[in-house]
Amino acid sequence: MSYKILYDCLGCGACEMACPTEAIAQSMDFRVAYVVDPLLCNDCAECVPVCPVETLVPDPDWAVCMGRGCPLTSSRFTGWGCSQGSVRCETCGAMLWQAAQSSEWVCPRCDEGRKVICPKVRKSETSEICTDV
Length: 133
Description:
By secondary structure, this protein is mainly β. The protein has two domains: about 5-60, Alpha-Beta Plaits; about 70-125, no CATH class. It contains two helices and seven strands. The protein has a three-stranded antiparallel beta sheet, with no helix packed on it. A two-stranded antiparallel ribbon has the order 1-4. It has a two-stranded antiparallel ribbon with strand order 2-3. The chain is elongated, with a radius of gyration of 16 Å. The two termini are about 20 Å apart.
């Protein structure tokens, strides 16, 4: 699941530098120095051990990448990969997928006509994401 940063954050920036997906950025909210964009967070947890005050915690409101509810865990999509937020469909905002042995990213909705969607994208469509970046 995505991570969130608690209000105890010191603002040191170690988590931002450790994040390989650039999901962590400075906040515009005065209550916390940094925030996590749940659509860019791929649950790698590389940010967690570098936090000196342990303010990065799992956010139970968000699905786990490639976990329960992710269509790509189905045997129908064996070999498919997900952009994990780095590339999104310009039309509908869905995460783009890549078929096995293909270099082309496709939208499962717009390009493939499938009725499947990333659970993180589904949640973002039904709730307001507060990233304050």
